[in-house]
Structure formats: structure tokens, C-alpha cells
Design goal:
alpha/beta; seven-stranded mixed beta sheet; three-stranded antiparallel beta sheet; binds pyridoxal-5'-phosphate
Length: 388
């Protein structure tokens, strides 16, 4: 039996990430403008880096509690309370994780039994379905459309809910579409979750990157606090992707269950990143707001730029992605992304990487300088002109 044949069928069944693939191809080519990767182009603000260095000077190099430094859990719960008026006990209802990525995996594994279904509005972040499959569950995609601003409705959810449905996994502001959900519509979804007794995993990693209106914290909706596993982190808003730090907030039973997995598989998040995260929450707001203002300018540039090329696109309300339709060019998502990369050296991600309903779109990240974005728009313009 070959080595490949010995790999677990569950793992074999997971397709490779469509984002990483393009990133790898682009990295090997010269002169590529990449709108491919969803990561801030800013370096982590200096005061955050300095707090980590200071911690190292003081010799903070050991494991922390599995749950994370109490100091950090207190800052997290204080910030969530100050922002959304949802209160959590930092000792029992908060878990510091290695990015939202780990929190997502833990949340899903902590609640799913084999065959349980999870409703996932689509297009969605690439890890959602993979994590559900790895946990032995069944992802049930709920397709959304540009016509409805990529917002999921209760009517759609009602059609797909079944006796096996255990949870609903939502991520707003959304990656890849930039969609947000108004409070009223989220409240209707909360009622739906209650009616069907579902757990809601709410990935709010882009909450601070909301450009229009204010973000609604799902756990803050009536009766939702204990039913919701709220996930958030530092990667996007604080430009801290490489630090690998995030967190989960929920009722003590869910947090203890997640910690049960975390304590054996991860032990704890890195202490250096935890120290930096404390500083980010204590003193990072001004720098964060400056970065958000910059993303907002770029967002306008991209919306106007892409529309002026003849591509229809939904104006994103949050995160740092724009998801134009490329149907007008007659090309499929993958073909568009491959040919654009070859012909004009611009890397974008084919929309179907985010689920079937992403076909006909590509994701462009505007976490890139204005000059890069301007060059990318010129090149996309040349490419599209020949095909419209
Ligand atoms: N959730 C969403 C919606 C994301 O877009 C990402 C990263 O792109 C993550 C989670 C993972 O974040 P982290 O760096 O905290 O693991």
C-alpha cells in the first residue's frame, strides 16, 4: 500500500484551499500584483510589538493557563461588554485560542456528533466546510446571491433545516463578499435558531471592519448569549495575522468542552502573542481606526474602479474584500483567475473556492496599497476589455 493510500479518507475528501493555491502560483511569478490573500498589508502597530518584546525581556516564556492569561481574558470580556453590552465571566466563559482558526475547529468538534448537519450561508470562508467535514459532520450550504446583497434569509434556512441540524455557522461581515446583516434580519435568524434549538457559531473576526452602520454582535440578541459561540480575534483588525491569537466566548459548558480539546491538542496559545493581545485591547483602538479608515478609502476605489470597467459588483459593507461578478466576460471563475494571472499578472481568488454559489465571481482583497490597487485595476481593465 502506498503512503498516499494510507491517508485517512476523511482527510482525502477535503479539497485543497483554493486561496492558498493561487497564492503559491503568484509567489513564484515576478511582477504579480496580488489581491489574493486576505491579510492586512500593515505591520502590527509598534506599541503592540513592543509589549511582546518587553515581556520577553522580563522572561515571560512559559506556558500559560490552558484558558489563556487571565489578564487577557479580562481584557477580552471587558472589550466585548464595553462594545456590545454582552457580559461573560472571564474565568469560565472565555477561551484564548491560536487564532479564530483554532476556535472554529474547537467549537465545531466540541458540539458535533457524526452525521450532524451544520447550516452554512454561502459563499463563505474556506475553513467552515472543511472543519465540519473533519469533525464528521455534514455541511449544508445555504446559497446567497448578489441580488440579495449576499444576506441569508430565514425562508432559505427553513427550507434546509432538518432533524439532524445541530448548528448554524455564520460569519458577518462576510469573507469573501463583504456583506453584513442588519440587526433586524439577524434577530429573525436568532428566532429561527431558538425555534429549532440550534447552536450558533458566529465568526465575528471582521466586526471592527464595518464601514456602514454598526456591527451587531449575535450573542447580544435576546436569548442568544448562551446558545452562541462567539469567535473573534486579532488577525484582521489589529494586523496580527502572524501572531496566531483569537478567542471564543460562550456558556461555561461549551467553553469547558472546547478547552478539553484545546488542552490536549494545543495546550495554550503562545504567551508572546497573548501579551501583545492585551496591549492591543488596552491601547490599540486609535491605530486600528486609522487602518480601518484606510481600508474604507480603498473600498471606494475598488467599487468605483471595478464598476467603471463594466463589472457588476455589490458594494461591500465590511471586511476587506470585494466580490465582483465576472459572468459578463463569459469566463468561469477559475478560468478568469488563471487567465488574468497569466495575461496580466494580477492574482485574485476564484469565487467557487468559497462554495458553489461563488461561481461567476472572483474575490479581490483590498488589503493592499492604493498604488497596487490602481495598477491592478488598470490590468484587470485591459483584460476585461478584450472579453466584454
Ligand atoms: N474567519 C474568517 C472569516 C477569516 O477570513 C479568517 C482568515 O482569513 C479566519 C477566520 C482565520 O483567522 P485567524 O487568523 O484568527 O485564524
Amino acid at each position: 500500500m502506498s503512503w498516499a493510500e494510507r491517508i485517512s479518507p476523511t482527510v482525502k475528501a477535503i479539497p485543497p484551499s483554493g486561496i492558498r493555491r493561487f497564492f503559491d502560483i503568484a509567489a513564484e511569478m515576478k511582477g504579480v500584483v496580488s489581491l489574493g490573500v486576505g491579510e492586512p498589508d500593515f505591520v502590527t502597530p509598534w506599541h503592540i510589538r513592543e509589549s511582546c518584546v518587553h515581556g520577553l525581556h522580563k522572561g515571560y516564556t512559559a506556558y500559560t493557563s490552558n484558558y489563556g492569561l487571565l489578564e487577557l481574558r479580562e481584557e477580552i470580556t471587558r472589550t466585548i461588554y464595553d462594545t456590545y453590552k454582552v457580559s461573560y465571566d472571564p474565568r469560565k466563559e472565555a477561551l484564548v485560542t491560536v487564532g479564530v482558526s483554532e476556535a472554529l475547529d474547537l467549537a465545531i468538534r466540541a458540539i458535533l456528533s457524526p452525521g450532524d448537519e451544520v447550516l452554512i450561508p454561502e459563499p463563505c470562508y474556506v475553513s467552515y466546510k472543511a472543519c465540519v467535514l473533519l469533525a464528521g459532520g455534514t455541511p449544508v450550504p445555504v446559497p446567497t446571491s448578489m441580488e440579495h446583497e449576499f444576506r441569508v434569509t430565514v425562508e432559505q434556512l427553513e427550507k434546509l433545516v432538518s432533524p439532524r441540524t445541530k448548528a448554524l455557522l455564520i460569519g458577518y461581515p462576510n469573507n469573501p463578499t463583504g456583506a453584513i446583516m442588519p440587526k433586524q434580519e439577524l434577530s429573525a435568524i436568532a428566532q429561527f435558531a431558538k425555534k429549532h434549538d440550534l447552536i450558533v457559531i458566529s465568526d465575528e473576526i471582521y466586526a471592527d471592519l464595518t464601514y456602514e452602520g454598526t456591527h451587531t454582535c449575535f450573542a447580544g440578541l435576546p436569548d442568544m448569549r448562551d446558545r452562541t459561540i462567539l469567535l473573534n480575534g486579532f488577525s484582521k483588525a489589529y494586523a496580527m495575522t502572524g501572531w496566531r491569537i483569537g478567542y471564543a466566548l460562550s456558556n461555561p459548558d461549551f467553553i469547558a468542552a472546547m478547552n478539553k480539546i484545546h488542552q490536549y491538542t494545543m495546550l495554550c496559545a503562545p504567551i508572546t502573542a497573548q501579551l501583545a493581545a492585551v496591549e492591543a485591547l488596552r491601547n490599540g483602538k486609535i491605530n486600528m481606526e486609522k487602518m480601518v479608515a484606510e481600508y474604507n478609502c480603498r473600498r471606494q476605489l475598488m467599487v468605483d474602479g471595478l464598476r467603471s470597467l463594466g463589472l457588476s459588483c455589490f458594494e461591500p459593507k465590511g471586511a476587506f474584500y470585494i466580490f465582483p461578478s465576472i459572468k459578463e466576460t463569459g469566463l468561469g471563475s477559475l478560468q478568469f483567475a488563471e487567465e488574468l494571472l497569466k495575461a496580466e499578472k494580477v492574482a485574485v481568488v476564484p469565487g467557487d473556492a468559497f462554495g458553489e454559489s461563488g461561481e461567476g465571481f472572483v474575490r479581490c482583497s483590498y488589503a493592499s496599497s492604493i498604488s497596487n490597487l490602481t495598477t491592478a485595476l488598470e490590468r484587470i481593465g485591459r483584460f476585461v476589455k478584450q472579453r466584454l
